[in-house]
């Protein structure tokens, strides 16, 4: 058997994230996941939330990482991953679903791409659309832990446009895009799970 792309972080965080998604996605029917990576989240959440049709996506260059795990999924509520670079607008997605999810992506993509993501949602997300974002954030200009400070240093060494984002700046983008923050859930390893809803 060939080895599937694997992220230990996904294994560690998928249960805590699921605990929140079970509640906030209880009345959702379709989820677009941005930056699906190995698709460990996509396949796990699709399996655990059978009422939801899960649409994974990835940057064109990384789509091949997401595909193999999705191909092994046996249920019928997971679509094949589609190419989506949030900075390439308009997105090649016909109708946005009633929920979007992304994990550990806002600190990887450049800030301009984070702005593009919210600009696209401002123009296209329907009223009541949920946006759920998992990852590390700074608050009041401060790291929430020593390990996040070290992680940010490491990120900067990998790519100068990657960085832990300020919660307040992201929330401002969300508000400008017509989204209201509903929840800010603490997660293990100094991460957060943020939930916004389109007004
Ligand atoms: C650290 S990985 C996270 C992957 C997965 N969500 C997870 O939790 O393991 C960051 C992902 O962001 C994706 N990404 C970076 N820039 C992007 C962009 N402009 N549009 C969409 N995805 C992007 C990368 O391709 C990569 O898969």
Can you put this structure into words, describing what you see?
Helices cover 37% and strands 22% of the residues. It is an alpha/beta fold and 199 residues long. The protein has one domain (15-198): 3-Layer(aba) Sandwich (Rossmann fold), CATH 3.40.50.150. The chain has a 6-stranded mixed beta sheet, sandwiched between helices. The mean pLDDT is 97. The protein binds S-adenosylmethionine (SAM). The site of S-adenosylmethionine has 22 residues, from helix 1.
Q: Major beta sheet, specifics?
A: 6 strands, mixed
Q: Tell me how many strands there are.
A: 10
H-E order:
HEHEEHEEHEEHEHEE
Shape: globular
Mean of pLDDT: 97
Give the helix proportion (percent range).
Answer: 25-40%
Give me the side-by-side strand order of the main sheet.
2-1-5-6-10-9
CATH topology: Rossmann fold
Unique ligands? S-adenosylmethionine
Per CATH, the architecture is 3-Layer(aba) Sandwich
Determine Rg (CA atoms, Å): 16 Å
The count of helical stretches stands at 6
Kindly name the structural category: alpha/beta
């Amino acid at each position: 058997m060939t080895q599937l792309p694997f992220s230990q972080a996904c294994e560690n965080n998928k249960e805590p994230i699921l605990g929140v998604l079970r509640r906030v996605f209880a009345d959702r029917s379709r989820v677009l996941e941005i930056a699906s990576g190995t698709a460990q989240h996509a396949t796990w959440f699709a399996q655990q939330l059978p009422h939801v049709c899960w649409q994974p996506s990835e940057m064109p260059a990384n789509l091949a990482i997401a595909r193999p795990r999705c191909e092994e999924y046996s249920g019928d509520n997971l679509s094949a991953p589609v190419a989506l670079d949030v900075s390439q607008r308009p997105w090649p997605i016909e109708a946005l679903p009633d929920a979007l999810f992304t994990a550990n992506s806002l600190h990887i993509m450049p800030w301009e791409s984070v702005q593009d993501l919210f600009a696209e949602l401002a123009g296209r997300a329907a009223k009541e659309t949920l946006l759920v974002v998992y990852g590390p954030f700074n608050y009041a200009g401060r790291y929430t832990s020593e390990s996040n400070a070290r992680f940010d240093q490491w990120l900067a060494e990998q790519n100068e446009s990657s960085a832990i984002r300020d919660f307040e700046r992201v929330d401002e983008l969300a508000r400008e895009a017509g989204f209201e923050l509903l929840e800010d859930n603490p997660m293990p390893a100094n991460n957060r799970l943020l939930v916004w809803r389109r007004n």
